[in-house]
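Interim report, section 4.2 (structural modelling).
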Amino acid sequence: EIVLTQSPGTLSLSPGERATLSCRASQSVSTTYFAWYQQKPGQAPRLLIYGASTRAPGIPGRFSGSGSGTDFTLTISRLEPEDFAVYYCQQYDKSPLTFGGGTKVEIK
Amino acid sequence: VQLVQSEVEVTKPGASVKVSCRASGYTFTSYGITWVRQAPGQGLEWMGWISGDSRHTDYGPKFQGRVTMTTDTSTSTAYLDLRSLRSDDTAIYFCTRDLVDGAYHDALEIWGKGTLVIVSS
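Predicted structure of the assembly:
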């Protein structure tokens, strides 16, 4: 099973700042099969990025994904108030599919 | 495009639960359905996947032997059947739709609102 480790666990930032979230895999993952999700309290997750770097439909340009192999990054260029949430990475390269433990982006 | 789930299911330890997920707005048989659960205050856990035509399934090893995923194409509904329930199965169970039609495993584009399953004596 591929284990995904997200860091940091919590990121305290102010609106307008840049957020950089990391996800490290225990073995190499194809960039084709890597995704990021956002989840707000009481809501289902929302797909942000798939294929490691492709924004899902309707996702603003301030969200970007990068990385390859075992290291992947989600960047939010300028935080908007609605971006404060929990973010999960996921690999769908090898079964069982797995999620990271999440990074909470909170208002500083 | 949407996935509609029942809100709450309450059941007892040792029993079974069958969670439904009714799809609309797309060709049901063209897209796989993945089930993901989230225990209170915890992260996301992949349970398994079923193809839209129900010919293929892939269950997570943690749930093998205890889970069955099915679909009813006549009503565009997917079902998750989980047996021998324990208190730590208390969670929100989400059904999700694959991003791309015909994919084996895929990013999860469409999410139901989730069904809260409570296992309590």
